[in-house]
Amino acid sequence: MPVSRHRRSPSWRFLLAAMAVTILLGGCDLRRETPPPAPRSPDAVELARQGAAVDSRDLSELVKASLPAAAADLRPALTTIGAHASAQLAQLGGVYVDPAAPPTSTGASATPSATRTSTPTAVAPAALVARLDQSYATTRGAALDATDGTLARLLASLAADRIIQAQELARFASLPLPPLTTSAVPSTLPSGLATSAAVDLVAAEDEAGYAWEVSAALRTGTERDAARARAAIHRARAQAWAETAKIAATAPDPRRVAYTIDRAAAATHLPADVETALAARYAALVATIGVANRAVMVDLLADCAATARHWGAPQTAFPGLPERPADQAATP
């Protein structure tokens, strides 16, 4: 009877050989070296995103560190500022820390100054207003330069929130209001803005002017004067956009003598609603308009959002972005 022979498969031979090599290398105390990962080289979009994320993180940490020592009447405002900064940081995707970066780097991985001390330090309202104003200017600039339209829209919204928070805190502390940066409506149709979109702007701005006029008629004193002044601003913008689109006093001009307005709403929340809708319209155009003429959309977004908030619109961490209603604060 033939003797049976067990054959080792090639896989077993390979495994035995690998084990032998491992034992030999281990006995000789040899290790296989691998090169460290190369540092990440971010593109322009990532640099803009990272810069806004670092700013949001630092603002959040500054507020968090100063809250325990803040005056009781200032804490609600600080809480809102911090909550908005945290929500914005999350939406930006957080701060990226390159694992290949040196530990002593002063870049995004550096610890914010607000967390370097264990002793709570109250931040003076004037200093925080200045910090928010500086963040507004920086974030606005990033929105103007961003090569990605979606990111530009988000950054423009963040910039609007920073100036809104700065102005609200300034009013609360009886400080001078930091001003909004303004840009004139361009005299020619910008790239990325279709004629039909410009016509829509004419109609929206003109209807807003009419709504403010009705609202002014239902108010008295300083509120009436402020409503009339705002109406004039929107009427002027409607005319400017009509001239830009080359439709002023022509058949395609969509402006009407009167619009259907709810009088009860005009006496209460309509002004805030009108401005909120315009802010969303300008925010949408930030994402599509050419970089050379983006400033007017960014600035009109901030102007309408700030006006809406001043006239009672709910708090939101993302002005002009109606897809984020959950980010609205619970208090008006």
Question: How does the SSE layout of this entry go?
Answer:
Layout lengths: L9 H18 L16 H23 L8 H18 L32 H21 L3 H24 L22 H23 L3 H24 L18 H4 L3 H17 L7 H17 L22
Contiguous helical run count? 10
Number of strands: 0
Instruction: Indicate the overall shape.
Output: flat
Please give the alpha-carbon distance between the first and last residues: 96 Å
Tell me the count of domains.
2
Tell me the CATH superfamily of the largest domain: Ferritin, core subunit, four-helix bundle
Which architecture of the largest domain per CATH?
Answer: Up-down Bundle
The assigned structural class equals: mainly alpha
Largest sheet: none
Rg measurement, Å = 29 Å
* Low confidence ranges: 1-8, 23-32, 104-117
Account of the protein in words:
- There is one protein chain.
- Helices cover 57% and strands 0% of the residues.
- Residues 1-8, 23-32 and 104-117 have low confidence and may be disordered.
- It is mainly α.
- The protein has helices at 10-27, 44-66, 75-92, 125-145, 149-172, 195-217, 221-244, 263-266, 270-286, 294-310.
- The chain has 2 domains: 43-95 and 121-179, no CATH class; 180-322, Ferritin, CATH 1.20.1260.10.
- α2 packs antiparallel against α3, α6 runs antiparallel to α9 and α9 runs antiparallel to α10 (294-310).
- The chain has 10 helices and no strands.
Write a compact overview of the structure shown.
By secondary structure, this protein is an all-alpha fold. It has helices at 10-27, 44-66, 75-92, 125-145, 149-172, 195-217, 221-244, 263-266, 270-286, 294-310.
